[in-house]
Amino acid sequence: MRDVVEQLQRLGMSGYEAKAYVTLVVAGQPLNGYEVAKRSGVPRSTVYETLGKLVGKGAAYELRGPEEAVGYLPLPPKSLLERMRREFDDSIESLQASLPTIVAPPGAHMIHNLKGTEAVLARAEDVIAAARTDLFLSIWPDEMKQLCPLVGRVAERGVEVSIVHFGPAEVSVGHLYEHRFPVPDSVIENLGCSLLVVVGDCSEVLIGGFVNGSAWGVYTEDPAVVLMSVEYIKHDIALQIIADRLGHDTLREFWNSDPELMRLRAAHGHPAALLRAVGMPDL
């Protein structure tokens, strides 16, 4: 019952209203205010005000008996949930039209930092769900397991999805390219963490780092950062295509012997160390 009360609160009921409604549902018969207060824990001093609010919202009904006795019955849960769904959908539709009209032009591009796996993945889900035209991801298996169902739904509605996935993927979604060159273990060794990059509609990006059970992240709408993130993923995908076309052994030999490529790869350690120091100071 506690979980039901909490969920009803999330949908707009106060704590007292949720407790009173659940009590009426469980009772299965009309209850007066005294009985609702006794069974629900709603104070007697406020129970009639609470029941009145439920009646006003259409979530409960008054039944008047002999000598003006008043009882209360709940709106059946199925009907209540359908009504809440309709009201929620109507509000969203209205806000989609009205809310953008009152937004002031930003003085600076939005950017904020995130800490912890849950926060990083939740923000990644926001970017994925908001995509309408294209979606670019650079992702590792652990993060793909959580985000794959949502990515699949986005692809099904026509968004062009391009993914570079480090190692074999359990499910192929959109245009998915397995990152096999260089091998994922060498990427981890070079960077010191696994990076998640999610770019939606070439207008917003979530960049996250995961290592030793900790995570940090940065979200921004800055066009320069978004552009670099898209190009980073495109170049990684291009490298996988080139490796498949030319042969991994041939490209590996070139990769490990060309002095300029070796110089560029060797420089990755310092920025990776800076990222870890800024994003995860406790590591």
UniProtKB/TrEMBL annotation:
Transcription regulator TrmB C-terminal domain mapped to chain residues: 111-170
Domain Transcription regulator TrmB N-terminal: 8-66
InterPro entries: TrmB-like, Tscrpt_reg_TrmB_C, Tscrpt_reg_TrmB_N, WH-like_DNA-bd_sf, WH_DNA-bd_sf
Name of the molecule in the record: TrmB family transcriptional regulator
Encoding gene (name): yrhO
